[in-house]
# Entry
Amino acid sequence: MSDRLLSRKRAQRNAVAALFLSHREAAASCALVSGFALAALIALPVAGQSPAVAAKAAGGAAKTGNWVASKTPDGQPDLQGIWNNGTVTPMERPAELAGKEFFTEKEALAWEKQVLARTNRDQRAPGTVQDVARAYNDIWWDSGTRVVRTLRTSMVIDPPDGRIPPLTLQAQEAQRARAELRQHPAETPRDRMLAERCLQFPTSGPPMTPYVYNNNFRIVQTKDYVAINIELLHDVRMIPLDGRAHLPSNIRLWFGDSIGHWEANTLVVDTTNFTNKTSFRGSDQNLHVIERFTRIDPETIVYRFTIDDPTAFTKPWTAELTMVKSPGPIYEYDCHEGNYGMMNLLKGARAEEKAAAEGNQK
Amino acid sequence: MRSPLGGWPISFAAAAVCAIFVLSARAQSPVYKAPRTADGKPNLNGIWQAVNTANWDLQGHTAQASHILSLGAQGAEPGGVGVVEGGEIPYLREAFAQKQKNYANRFQDDPEIKCYQPGVPRATYLPFPFQIVQSKGVILISYEFANATRTIYMENAPDSPTDYWMGHSVGHWEGDTLVVSVTNLDDRTWFDRAGDYHSDALHVTERYTPISPDAMNYEATIEDPKVFSRPWKISLPLYKHLEKNARLMEFRCVEFVEDLIYGPYYKHPVVAN
# Structure
């Protein structure tokens, strides 16, 4: 029996899952059109679709409603498939939602509607700065249309006010220095963001958080490894489960060094050994991330991460979001091979300097 | 009854003859049966690497001095007997002229220099390891070089709407052999540093066959009627990394080639000599 049929059988027992599936199948039947159009279709909100009432305390939840955690042939909890973590839930709780930890389903729908209306990139008066600055039309963006399935009002769950703890003075200074590099025309690519250089997206992780598009991840499991294929920049996080220790501290990696283990139905991944090249919301090379992946139903993984970086944050903090099953496929997200943007950006910077020099001579 | 073998009983002699037959048969065509995954498929999981000079030149070649004077012996090219079955790549005449042009400009034009994704089959025999992660529905291959990645669809393969640097891979099992058909390959990759190349009509059929617990044979049949007069084949062993702490490291080489690619447009230009 195919996974899809199995899913359907389970869905018949689970009204919430059935709602998701009918949406997915509708999207899948249109897969003849280009992947991009497919992505756009998935992004369309479905009228009357309400967020799943997922387990609010996801840690270790093995069973939700009628669903029993499925296993891989190796007997491990099955996280395999393609997942999308796009959402309209903000990382930090907005002031207007202070003191409110969860939406009701009705409030969630209203919030989704409000955010989508506010961020729609097709609202632009021709010829205005806004028109130019928002160069891509709305169809190019795919950052999610739904709140996280746990109905939280922010990804940050600790501190309980839903706000990231303040940066240390040292981290504030580093952040200011990074921002300053972008205040003048780029002398080299090193003055620009890592994503523009096709080196790393700040959301690829760990921790893995939503970007403005291509929020797709494929998980493949063996007895000894969990592999996470990140669509952006075709990266694979290879997480060994064999109980090995972290790399020696002199070996530093863009993705850090991840080691994993299972705690009941939760995959726990511990990552250290970062470089000083990447920064997650102000973090530095001392970043220590602990991620927890718990599948709570056929369509949902609750993804929780704790950030501990004593030189960057004044105290550790924890956030949680959901990864939702996607029909895929994962595309090869090429960047460097066609990075005309970087070439043109540097040429433009040199042209600006030349014009400025000629202006000074007049 | 007396057998022709002196005092040996016939049954014993027959057994000895049988044993000799069995042993000689095994010596002629060793049939290795690979260990299985939990779902019963040959288990190819692991970190693998080719150990040869195919990335320098698929065809046989002698060692050559470095083209960068200061690198001396470190930059010299090692020799190799080649991995092309029959020895020669069957180029069409005009295509061979292009290959020669590529060879002449190989230290500028080889896409490996710019850290572009290497394509298939070159990703397999670059001097970098790759890791196979095998599940029922897909087999993921993660290559250390340029963090290139392939998904081999073992079931429910989607159509490929476009070409990819690493192609579109659909696989199936033939006994213990993983057979992968690779299409939709971008025409900007090369096969090696010697300028061997292909067009967008390239179709690669790969065969991964376990031959011992720590080795498998890799074959790739190359079809490209725009460039070659007939299909041709490369064949080489792949070896498993057995180090206790074996792992893919990062070789995110984009950072290493920024000065080379963009240097002329820096405020203080950098130009490769």
Residues 142 and 190 of chain B are 19 Å apart (CA to CA).
